[in-house]
Amino acid sequence: MQQHNVLILDFGSQYTQLIARRVRELNIYCEIHPFNKPPKNLVDFKAVILSGSPNSVRSEAVLHPDLSEIRGKKPLLAVCYGAQYLAHFSGGKVAPSNTREYGRANLSYIKNEEIFFENISEGSQVWMSHSDTIKELPTNAVLLASTKDVENAAYKIAGEDTFAIQFHPEVYHSTDGKQLLENFLVKIAHVAQTWTPDSFVESTVKSIQDKVGNDKVVLGLSGGVDSTVAAVLLHKAIGKNLYCIFVNNGLLRKNEFESVLTQYEGMGLNVKGVDASERFLTALAGVSDPEKKRKAIGNSFIEVFDDEANQIKGVKWLAQGTIYPDVIESVSATGGPSATIKSHHNVGGLPDFMKLKIVEPLRMIFKDEVRRVGASMGIDKDLLGRHPFPGPGLAIRILGDVTLEKVRILQEVDAVFINGLREHGLYDKVWQAGAILLPVNSVGVMGDERTYEKVVALRAVESTDGMTADWVNLPYDFLQKTSNNIINKVKGVNRVVYDISSKPPATIEWE
Length: 511
Ligand code: XMP
Known about the structure:
This protein is of the alpha/beta class. The protein has 13 helices and 21 strands.
């Protein structure tokens, strides 16, 4: 597999991760590296892709990659900024464009480059997003395709496997973008399509065994997809030497602790459930500021986890469910890689478990790949399809201070809402959903009695990564039934509202 890696050099484009996603969809393994921090050993990479960039090759802050071991030596595909870079510094000319070059365009071929454009017909829609344009092609270039506004939309360098395109094949609006990447990677660069969930599991199990040997590993399970898949992978590799800890912070969904714990045990995991609800609720008593709540919960978790990890004799490793988007070093607007990595240094003052060596079996895969890997290992579909749930749990959905009674009310409301979504076949259509307990009472009437009780808000959003989100247009009859059920079944609530705010400007959670 190693010789069938693809290297993506990142110049800071918003679409760089999309290039990697498209390549992985072709069952080809790839890695993203900052353009100015390429991997030391290029032997492992069979082809290279240059990403786009918000920078201009004409500006003083031009981003210069070192292509001396790449250009003419490995198949190279230069996208957008990459294409302009090759043109500008190899005898061509790049200038600001006169017309707006953003959005959809259609390709017309100048020369039918059979392999590069195989199975892509004349007129194919592509996505443009650039303000500079290539006025003159570089030395030895052969023009391959144009659009109405962009003459030099695709070119190749004669005598090299170097191709350059002004448009973005990674964006879905480029209808044949995936085909074009396949043509380049498979037919031109001869990269094998062997990256599958099964092959990932096989190679990861082996590398965990090589790395960890007979050592003991501790892992905190959260009930979420990432930590669960990481645990099952590690369990496959080292069996009982994996010690899982699942903490009940008292802020989980109704019955969540018991049911997830049973599920984990059923999967054969060596898991210890620790009920620390009281400790968390005590730490939260009287705290209403959202960030202070998060701190109190974070600190309590560290204390509980540290106590538990210390009871495992001779444990040497801490496993984490870190995934690729958390690891990628993004290139900042000024061109330098801006480190977004959370590091765990062996320095004093940290809890004992943080002084352990780290193993992160999912650090090179994306969220959708985590799910596919989980499915290939036979993890239950319902567990893999669960909505994201915040670490601080219901504490940040109870506005104001948190008490046991408020948690009880919210757990009941949340259960009615989430079960309703499942019963009506809506759960999988929603990215995340939950209920929020508002810090106000409202007047109502039940029978002949006046009531003065709590108001709850329901929130359901569509999203891909939680960075932006839109409220979901849930059917009125579903909302009506849910509202009735909540008010009839949950003592202490007399009013239900539905949150119709998108992110931005709102956020998904209310705190
Ligand atoms: P926001 O509210 O920022 O939420 O739009 C985006 C996503 O992050 C989750 N979230 C958290 N997750 N600890 C977590 O582990 C937190 O403190 C936290 N705050 C928000 C939220 O549920 C949503 O999926």
